[in-house]
Each structure stands twice: as C-alpha cells, then as structure tokens.
Amino acid sequence: MFREEHGRLLAALVRRFGDLDLAEDVTAEAIAAALELWPVHGVPPNPGGWLMTTARRRAVDRLRRDKAYAARLAVLAVEAERAGPVPPVEPGAELPDERLQLFFTCAHPALAAEDRGALTLRCLAGLTTPEVARAHLVATATMAKRITRAKRKISEARIPFRVPGPDELPERLPGVLQVLYSIFTEGYAASAGPDLQRLDLAEEAIRLARILRRLLPAEREVAGLLALMLLVHARRAARTGPDGEPVLLDEQDRARWDHPMIDEGRAVLTTALTGGPVGPYAVEAAIAALHDEAPDVERTDWAQIVALYDVLLGLVPSPVVALNRAVAVAMRDGPAAGLALLDELTDEAQLRGYHPFAMARADLLQRLGRRRDAAEAYRTALAQAGTEPERAFLRRRIAAVEM
C-alpha cells in the first residue's frame, strides 16, 4: 500500500506546496508515522487520506518553523485564501490523483536524459536513492548528486508541475514513455552485473505503465507500451536456465511462459491497434504477440513479423530495428539472406559495441557452416557483453564452434 500511495501522495504534496524536497521529506515522515501507529491502533478506514492529512500537517509545521520558508508560506497562504479552505480527507474519499503531473515533471526535456529515469524511480516508484543507484549501476553518492541536480534544475528552470495541454502532449508524451521503456529494458536485459534479468525493475516499469494508462486511457501508445512490456515479460521464467545463463527463444520451454499475462497483453494490444495509425510501441507489441502465439519457432509467422518490422522501420528508422528485421528475414528466407542484411549494417555507429549484433552474425555464420568466422564473431560479442551469464553462454558457444 505504501508503494502504491507514495507517488500519489508525493504528487499531491508537490502540487500543493511547490517544493519537491519538502514533499519527499513529509511523505517519508507520514509513512514512518503510519509504521509506528497503525500496528498499535489499526489501519484507518482510508489509509491514503490518513497519510495525506498527516503529511500536509507536517509540511505546514515545517514551513512555520523554518524562516527560510517564510516567504513561501506567505505565498501559499495567499493562494489558499483565493482557492478557499482545503477540506480534510474524509474516510472513504478518493485522493486526487496528480501523478500524471509528476510523470511529466520527471521526464521533462530540460532534464538530462540520465536524470529522468532516476527521478522517475525515486519519485513515482518510491525507490530509495541506494535502490535507484543499484538500478542504474552507479554509486549511491553519484546517484544522489544526479537526483539533487535534477531537483535543482526543476526549481531553477521553473519547470511547471502540470500536464501538457493538448497541443503539447504529442511532443512530450514520447519522452515519458521512453523513460518507462528504458527502465523496463534494463530489467529485461541488464547492461551489467551478475544476472541476465532484473525482474524488480521490469515489474516496476510495468506497474508505472499501468498507472499511466489509467491516467491517460485515450492515449493508444500508452496502451502499446504496456502491451509490449506484458507480452515480453511473460517469457521471463523461460529466458534463463538453472545456472542463470540465457536460453534463446528457439530453446525456451513455452509451457513456462506466463499465459495469463500474454492474454492480458493481447487484450491491451487490441486497444493500441484500434482507431487509426499505430505507433511504434504498438507495432513492437504486435511482433511480440506473434512470438507468444506461436507453438514453436518453426511455426512462427515470420512473414508477418518481417512485414511488421517494415512498418516499424518506417516509424523508427533505427539500426537496431534493422538488425531485428534481418534476423526475422533469416528465419523466413534462410541464414544467407539474413547475413547479407547484417553485413550492410556493419558501419552503423549505433551497432558498434552492441553485442546482440555480433551474436546475431555469429549465429548465422554458424548456421552456414562458417565455424571459424562464427567463433570470431562470438569472441567479439564476448568482449562486448555486460553480464556474467551472457559471457558464460558465449564462452560455451565459442567452445562448441571450435570443436
């Protein structure tokens, strides 16, 4: 309950007091008070309302005590007089959900790209600074500086705490979605560390995407992103073996896939695909759905997947999308056709150091019987891989092709 209410509470307090640091402090104090009092007196009928009332009182007390906030308190008093008294949160009453403003504040384009995901995890997911640091694979002190820098930027640049208007939303929403997708991607395939997957991050990204969809039900790309996450995350149990090493799609036990999650993802995807031109997340989700629906790799509709990648390339002309399309072409037309397309991408700067590219080449070379070239490509991937499970997997592949 605390995890769910944290973002909602923080958003309402930032909206009320205009100070992210103050809102964080009194949110933490309210939760600490609940942890102390509720085990003794019982959970109140409206836990969120109790937390809001407690946090609001503590914020006002702090403003009254701190001379540095005297001017702020005067401004708030004037604003409060104009708006009328703030009613207490009655038992059973719904808290106003202002998290949407917080989504757009955390993902504002004025913030550095590396700071947006950190602030989203800190403010909306309620992770501590050390937890956010672990999520981004940096030291806690480094992450604390990033978060402080982002908050200072919000204050100094007077970044508004509001939902963009209809004319701004198409420009600003992709940034919010990209933050969530980046969090999910790091959970799906960790960039470094001892584990291939970081399920806590992936699941937190899905939780935040569910919230965003509730807040923006008419935005189809929000539905597309949620569908994509669900359809991909549904394979999590089969993606690693007992030793934690990767299990490729053609070797996965599909009985271990989360089929209720696949059903949910397909239902959400229907919304994303209905009602006009589709966005890139919806197209990616449609590709994931075709994988999830197939009984095995051989009976996957590779022709349809290639066609969808053609659509995706028109929307997002990215070398990574071209790489994935080449792999699908190899499954449809044979490894030689796929390898020819991969060879056309060798000079793409975005793919230098990107180990899935070297792995894809190695696999196709191995299927063509070019074992020496395959071993060299696997060694390139080994030098670029970030997690130990991937490195162990690649060492086994190298040993197999060199036998």
From TrEMBL:
**UniProt KW keywords:** Sigma factor, Transcription, Transcription regulation
Q: Which residues form the DUF6596 domain?
A: 172-272
Under the heading SUPFAM superfamilies, the entry gives: Sigma2 domain of RNA polymerase sigma factors, Sigma3 and sigma4 domains of RNA polymerase sigma factors
Segments forming domain RNA polymerase sigma factor 70 region 4 type: 106-154
RNA polymerase sigma-70 region domain: residues covered:
2-67
Which domain of life does this protein belong to? Answer: Bacteria
According to the record, the signal peptide region is none
Q: Identify one Pfam family in the record.
A: Sigma70_r2
Similarity section? Belongs to the sigma-70 factor family. ECF subfamily.
PANTHER family membership? BLL6612 PROTEIN (PTHR47756:SF2), BLL6612 PROTEIN-RELATED (PTHR47756)
This protein is called RNA polymerase sigma factor
Name its species. Pseudonocardia humida
